[in-house]
Every structure is written in C-alpha cells, then in structure tokens.
Amino acid sequence: MEITVCESLLVNANTATPIVDAVCIVCGGTHAKQRFVQRGYVVLRCPDCGLEFVAPTPGPAELADYYDHSYAVPLERYAAAQQRNVARIVDLERWCPTRGRLLELGASYGHSLAAARERGWDPVGIELSPTACGYARSHFGLSVYNSDLAEVPLADGSFDAAIMWHVLEHVRNPKDQLLRLAAVLKPGGILGVRVPNVASFGARATGEWWPWMCPPAHLWFFSPDTLPRLLRACGFEVQQVSTLRGDGNNLYQYALMAAGSRLNDLRQRLGPREPAGAQSGDRENAPRVPPESSAVVDQCVMRSVPESSMAHAQPQPSGILRAWLRLLARAQPITNALARGTRPLVERLERQGWGDELLVYARRIGKSI
Questions:
Q1: Is residue 8 classed exposed, middle or buried when 0-12, 13-18 and 19+ CB atoms within 10 A define those classes?
Q2: Contact, 300 vs 218, CB < 8 A?
Q3: By CB count within 10 A, which of 110, 156, 290, 340 is most buried?
Q4: What proportion of the chain, given as a percentage, has pLDDT over 90?
Q5: Residue 171 near residue 164 (C-beta atoms within 8 A)
Q6: Highest mean pLDDT among 139-143, 278-282, 300-304, 311-315
Q7: Cα separations (Å) of 71 from 68, 74, 173, 304?
Q8: pLDDT digits (tens, 9 = 90+) for 97-156
Q9: Strand, coil or helix: what is 27?
Q10: Distance CA 232, CA 46 (A)
Q11: d(CA 242, CA 95)
C-alpha cells in the first residue's frame, strides 16, 4: 500500500508555520491546508473533500509509547455501558437479522461481543491492548486476538458482519483497515462504523477546543461526506449515514465553549502583541475541556502523562483561562437541564448532522477486493 502521508515536516523560516507534504486518503488531493497545531501535531484539512487529519502520521513506536503511557479507558466505564452495548448490537441486526459470524475490531474488554453472543452471534474480536484482550478471554471466554488486523489469520469472506466503534480515527491507515475488512466479509456482509463527527455543531463551534480533536489519540476526523466516500472507495455500498449525540456534550455547553474561545481571540487581538515565535498559553497549550463528566467517553480518556512523552511541554494556562474553565464546569448542570427540557428539539438537530457521533452502515459488494 502506498504511503499516504509523506514523513517530512518542514518549517517556513518567515512564518514558523509547519508545512506538510500530504496526500488525502479520501480524494487523493495534494493541497491540504493547515488548520492549527494541536498538542504539537499539525492538523490539516483537504480543501477538495473536507477530510481533516494529522500529518505527518505518527510512527508505530511513537503511538505505542503514547498508548502505553497516556491513554486508558477504565474497565468500569465499559461495564457500566452494557445497555448501550446491547442497543448497538440490536441496531446492527436491522441490517443482518439472521446474525452469523461477527468480527469486532477494537473489542476492548469484550462487553459488546458478549452482548452479541447472548443474542445468537458467533463473535470474534481483535484488540491491541493485552490487558483488555486478556479480560475478554478470561472473563467472557471470548475468542479475541491480541494483534493488529493485518496480522490476524482470517479467511476471506468468512464473516457476516463487522463493527468498529470509535476505532477508525485511531489507526495509522484507515484505508488499509477498511480494505482488509472488505476482504474478510462475505459479499453482502454488513459493516458498522462509529467515529466522531468533525462536521458536528460542537466541532464547528469550538474548533481546536472540540474534545475529540485530540491527537495523537485521534489522527483522522471524518464527516458524513468523507467517511461514506472512503467506504465506497474500499468496496462498500453505503446503506445509512446518521449522526447522534454519542458521548458528546450538549449543544448549549458547546455554545458557551465557543463564546469563550471567541472572547479569548478578541482579548488576544486587542491586547499586547506577543514576541515573534511565542506560543499562546491560552490556546495551543490549554487543557482539554471534558465533554461531560458523567459521559462514558471511549475516545480520549487521559491519565497523567509525563512531560517527556508529550510532543511539546505545555505551560500552565493563564488565570483568565482557569477562571473560564471553572465557569464552564459550574454551567454544565444548568446546560444539561436545559438540554433535557428541550430534548425533542435537541435530538432532532443532532440527527440532522449536529451530533458529535457519526454512524455509517455499509455492505461489502463485489466478488473480490
């Protein structure tokens, strides 16, 4: 497979802006423009199709170190989400009512596969975490490979369905993953994919402050336009594209976050200019704003990270920013109540593209990939 992101990062001496040679995996475009630098990682946007992605793609060793030291999803959060796990399998069965063999890429601790088995599926999982994989095997007695998809000896055309819930945004090459899934699915087999929706209200309103804009955990940022296009290029026929709230925050809280970001921009423009080359502690190095303290977040759950493992040392935020974050935390229960009170309106908007979660179902087509 061709390398889609060139491993070269240059710096323009006049602007100190990183310039990255990159090829879009969705449309093949070569004119991606930088949106911002997040945690030391350059985030680009393809002007031809709208795909957003990190470039250059971090290498396997860098990502392995990150996941070993900086990324964790506690077991208790998955266990507490059993009702959601069952609901997702029930939704999958709309497309595959006869059930059959099910492959989950990113099986984690095995809760989704266990729920599927109870409903008559023959489940198999793939999980990179040795701890999560071991739990799925010992606690649930599931067949789970502790390996990468490319290294697992799966026969072509051997699965009736496959799911990947919030996995595709993490991998180094989504196109390779989808091509392999197309190969192991039977003709007509169904694939379910969930990813963060970069076209959501929260993403558009808050930009780099969006909680799911968190490299190197997330490397690819898909929309209802770009993910279906990539799936079609990999041998799938798209059946449904929908957006949901998922684990995202409510729309009112995102509006407050956006207002704070705009006010901070205004303050910086009206305030004293920083010396050339200085970084703003209030924007690039600000702590991530959690989507909601009560949400089950399976995308970017962070534990404390030693400075040496981060791309750049991160100065402490200013007093103004700390005060604003405290205000956001106090406002969260109020916006939650407002969202509950206007639930029919909010859910309608989230389903119309404003939701933070993108869900796509697609069928494998053709005799071979």
A1: exposed
A2: yes
A3: 110
A4: 64
A5: no
A6: 139-143
A7: 7, 10, 19, 9
A8: 999 999 999 999 999 999 999 999 999 999 998 889 999 999 999 999 999 999 999 999
A9: coil
A10: 18
A11: 15
How many helices and strands (H and E) does the chain possess?
11, 13
Q: What is the CB neighbour count within 10 angstroms for residue 288? A: 15
Please tell me the predicted confidence (pLDDT) of residue 168: 97
Q: What is the pLDDT of residues 154-184, one digit of tens each?
A: 999 999 999 999 999 999 999 999 999 999 9
Alpha carbons 105 and 197: distance in angstroms, whole number: 19
Unique residue bearing structure tokens 């819930």: 165
How many C-beta neighbours within 10 Å does residue 63 have? 19
Q: 252 by DSSP, 3-state: which?
A: helix
**Alpha-carbon distance values, 187 to 7, 204, 234, 364, 365 (Å):** 36, 37, 13, 5, 5
Phi, psi angle pair for 159, to nearest 5°: -125, 145
* Orientation of helix 130-140 relative to helix 111-118, angle to 10°: 30
Ranges of H-type helices in 141-233: 174-184, 201-206, 226-233
Distance of CA 299 to the CA centre of its chain: 6
Domains and CATH numbers, the chain: 5-64 (no CATH), 74-249+349-364 (3.40.50.150)
Give me the helices (H) in the chain, please.
60-69, 75-80, 82-92, 111-118, 130-140, 174-184, 201-206, 226-233, 251-270, 319-341, 343-349
Two tokens, residue 205:
């309103």
The owner of tokens 């400075």 is 307
